[in-house]
Fold this protein.
Amino acid sequence: MAVTQEDVEHIANLARLALDERRIPELVQQLNAILEHMDVLQQVDTRKVIGASGVGDQALPLREDKGVPLPLHRARELFAPEVRDGFFLVPRLATHETVAEEGG
Amino acid sequence: MSDRPRTAVAAVEDSFRRMDDVRAGADGLNIILWQDRERAAADARQIDRRLEQGEDIAPLAGVPFVAKDNIATLHLPTTCGSRILEGYVSAYEATVITRLQNAGAVLVAKSNCDEFAMGSSNEHSAYGPARNPIDPERVPGGSSGGSGAAVAAGIVPIALGSETGGSVRQPASFCGVVGVKPTYGRVSRYGLVAFASSLDQVGVFGATVNDAALGMEVIAGRDPLDSTSADRDVPRYRAEVERPLTGVVIGRPAEYFPATLDARLVRLADRALAALRSLGAEIREVSLPHTDLAIPVYYILAPAEASSNLARFDGVRYGLRVAGDGLRGMYEATRSKGFGPEVTRRILLGTYVLSAGYYDAYYKRAQEVRTLIAEDFRSVFEGGVNALFTLTAPTPAFELGTKSDPYEMYLNDIFTATANLAGVPAMSIPIGRVDGLPVGGQVIAGHFDESMMFRVAYALERALGEEAHR
Amino acid sequence: MTATTSDPRAVVERYEMVVGLEVHVQLKTRTKAFCSCSAAYGAPPNTNTCPVCLALPGSLPVLNEAAVRLAIQTAHALHCTINQVSVFARKNYFYPDLPKGYQISQYDRPLATGGLLEIGKNADGTPITVGITRVHMEEDAGKSIHDRYAANTAIDLNRAGVPLIEIVSEPDMRSSREAVAYLRVLKQLLEYLEVSDVNMEEGSLRVDANISARLRGETKLGTKTEVKNMNSFSGVERALEAEFARQAMLLDAGEKVHQQTMLWDGSRGEVRPARSKEQSHDYRYFPEPDLPPLVLDPAWIDEVCKNLPELPAAKRARFGQSYTLSDGDIEKLTAFAPVADYFEQVVGAHNDPKAAANWILGSVFEALRQSGTSIRDFRVRPPDLARLLDLVRDGMLSSTAAKHVFNKMLETGERPEQIAEREQLLQVSDTDELARWVDEVLVENPTEADRFRKGERKLQGVLVGLVMKKSKGRADPRRVNQLLSERASSSGA
Ligand SMILES: [Mg+2]
Ligand SMILES: [Zn+2]
C-alpha cells in the first residue's frame, strides 16, 4: 500500500494544505517510511476484539436544556481576522458553491 | 514547596528572578514563551491580601506555576507553539488553570512546547527549540519541554504540561524532575487545545513526588464541561503516599527491557527495583505482549484525530489569516504558512489513514490493536499486580538536531505511548544519571489508581534520596 | 434538435421515478446541541455564540438531554428501533460556517433504525408506506450570507450547533406526488410531536432527494443523483419532475446518468450539477472522541416514549368513531393538532359535532386566515364558541345574527350573550311581537300584501325578508313563515 504523489496531492487537498511542489517527493518518501512500520498491524489477530472505541468506561453524560451560555471574556473583534456588522468575513464564494458543500 | 517564601509576592518575584538568572527567555534556554510580570505581581498581591484577611486558600496559596502554551489562559497568549496562533489570547480559561488559581497558585508564564504538542524534543516549536537546563546543548524532551525545564531550572515548583504519548513523562525524564500523566478522564481537558482527544490528558510536573501529587489533587475531578471527564472521587494523594510498600506487587514487564537497551540505563532501573524490594514490595516478572505495536497504533490514531482537531485553524474566526485566491486560497495559504513541517506531516498522515479506502486497514485496525494493548494492562493488574516499573525513555536527553528521521524520533515514545493508549496513569521520577544526564523511571498503575502510583513513586524517591540525581 | 427527437412526454411516460428523501429537522430545544447558547432564531449575528460553538481552541461539546428526548420521540413515532447504544462521529469537511471543520453527527451506529411512515391509501384501501432507514442526531452549521457584501461572504454562527435530526427514507416513493405526500405526512407528524417548528422557509425543515429513473417494469435501481437546494414542497415536486425528465431523456438516448449532486434553481425551474470540484467528498468519518457512546437506559427510553401526544392516524381513527363527520372534515380538523383540540373543546361544551365542524372549518378558519394568527392565540376561545352555537340551536340567534356576533367576538373578545343582548340581537319568538311586525309589513306594503293574499305564494319570501329587516334580524324566520301562512289561509284565498 505505497503512498503515491497523487495520494499526497489528494490528501493535501482534503486537508486544505498547499504543498510546495519540491517538497512533495520528500513527503511521499517520509509517509511511506512511516507507513511501512504500520504494516505489522495487518498481521495481528483482532478477531476477538469487539466494539473498539476509546478507552474510557464513562457513559456519555447529558446536560439539562438550560443554563447560562458560557461567557466570552474577549470580544470577537479582538480575536477574529475580519468582522463587520457582527459577521465574520471571508473571501466571497459564489452561491452555488454553498449548497454543494453544505454537509447537512 | 515546604520552604516557600512567606508571601506570594516574594515567591513570584523569586520565580521571575530565577527566570532571569537562568536566561529562560528566547535569548537563552527559550523555555518561557509568554509572561506578564505586572499581572502576576497583581495576582500575587491579591493572594497575599486574602491570606492576610485570614482566608483559607491553601493548599497552593502563593505558589507560582507555569502552563504549557497549549492550555487556554485569559491573560497570556495561547499559541500552542505555532505560527497559526501567534498573538492569540483565549476568550476563556481552561478548567485546570481556574482550579489552580482557586487553590491560590499564581500563573507566571506560558512555556515552550512542540507545535500542537507534536514532538518529543521541543525542537518543533515555531518559536525555536527549548534547551535542557542540565545541558543547554541537549533537548529538554517534548512536547512539554518548556514546563519540564522550568521545574528543573528552579523557576517554579510545579508546572502544567500535556500528554498524548509521553509528552510529560519523557521531558521529566530528560530534565530530572517528576512528571505525571493521570488516568484518561481524571483531569478535565476543557481548555487543553486538542491534539488527539482520545489520548490527551493534562499532566503535572513537580520538583518532588509530593509537589506533583499536590498539583494533581487540585486539578483532578469531574468537570461538566468535559464529557470524557470521570465522575469519581479524588483521593488525598499526599495522605496515600506515606503508606508502606509491604505486600505491594510491582511488575517488571519483559517487553520494556529489550536486549538492545542501553545497559547503563538498565542498571539504574535494576537499582530502583532493588530499592523497592528492600521496602517490602514484591517484584514480579510480567508480560505485556502487544507492547511493540504501541508506536504503530499511536502514530495512526494520534495523527488521525489531529487531522480533524486541527481543521478549525482555518483563518475564519481567530488566529492567522493569509490571503490567497478566494476562500480556498485563503484556507490553503493560512494553513500552509501557519503549520510547521511536523504538524503538516502528521495532518497528511492522519488524513490519509482516515480517507476512503484506507480507513479499515489503518484507523480501524489500529483501534482494534489499541484494545489489545489495553487488555494487556487489564490482565496484568487483574492478576494481582499493583503497579509496573519501567524506564521512561530508551535514552537520556540527546543533542539538538541529531534526530532528523521522523520515525526515529517517534521511537522516543516507545515506553510511554502504551499508557496513553490504555488510558492508565503513569509517572516518571528521577532514578539516577548517566554521563551526568538524568534518567527517569516510570511507574504505571491501574485505571484511577493514582494513589498506588504516587505511593510507589514516593517510596522510591525517599529510598533513592540523593542517588536519584547522581 | 433534430426531427427524430422523441416526444419528451412520451419518453418520460416509459420511465418510473424512484425517490428516497433525506430530511433534516431542527429540534425545538431552548439551548444548542452541545453548548448552552440559545438556539433561538433571529438574534443579531453571532450573538448566540460561545467558546464551544465558535470552536475556540480547547473547547469541548456536552450533549443536550432535550435533544436526545425529542429525537427518540420522533424515531418512536416513526416506528423505528431505538438503539440502546449509539455513537457520535465526526464528518470532516471545510466550510466557513462549519466552525470546527467537522460536523458532529452519527454514522455507522445511529440513534434509531428501521421504521416506516404511512403516507396514504391505494385505490383498494391498502396503505402506502415508506420505509425509514434511520434517524440520527447531528448539529446544524451556521449561515453563510453571500449577497450582503460585494467582496465577502458573511458568516453568522448563531445557528451553528443547533440540534438536528436527519430522517433518511428508503427509496420507496414512485412519483413526485408521493414524495410530497411523504413530506406532508412527516411534517404533520413532527408538528403533532411538537419536536420542531417545521418551517421550510426558516430552514427548520430541509429536504434533499435521492432520485433515479428506470424503465417501467424494471426491478433494478438505476444510478441515482442527489438533488439539493429545494426550499418548499412545491419546489421539491418541480425539482423531482425536472431531474426525472433529465434522467429519462438521458437514458432514452442511450446515455448514462452520472452519480452527482444536482442543485435546484427555483427561479429558473431547472436543475444543474454542483461544481465538479466539490463532488469528490471524502468525509473521513470516525468516532467522535470527545463524546463517549450514548448509552440509553431502556426504562428511560420507555418513559420518554410513553408521554407522546396522540398521533395523527390515531386521532383520525378516533374522530371517525366518536363523531359523525365526513372523512373530508375529519382530515381537515386533524390536520393540525391544536385545531383538533379546539374542536374537541367546543364539542365538549356544545355536543353537536357537525355544527362545531362547520363553524370551525368556515368562520374560524376564515378569521385565522385573515388575521394570520394561530388557533392557539385565537381570540374566540372554545367555550365562547360553544355558547354561540347553543344560542343558535336554541333559536335565540339567527344564523345571520350569529355571524355578526362572532365578528364582534373577534374584535372585543366578549362573551356572545353580552354582545347579542347589547345589540338587541336575541331572536324574538314572542308571538305578539312577531304578529305586530308581520301586520305592520302587510300594511306598509299593500300591493304585495294583496297579491300574497290572493294566492301569489312566492311573495312569502319577500315578505319574510321585510319582516326580518324590520326586526333587525331578531325575528325567528320559522315563526314569521308560520304567521304569514296563517294570514294567507285566513284570508280564504
Ligand atoms: Mg446530515
Ligand atoms: Zn455556544
User: Anything to note?
Assistant: Chain A touches chain B through 53 residues (CB under 8 Å). Residues 98-104 of chain A have pLDDT under 50 and may be disordered. The beta strands of chain A are 62-63, 83-84, 87-91.
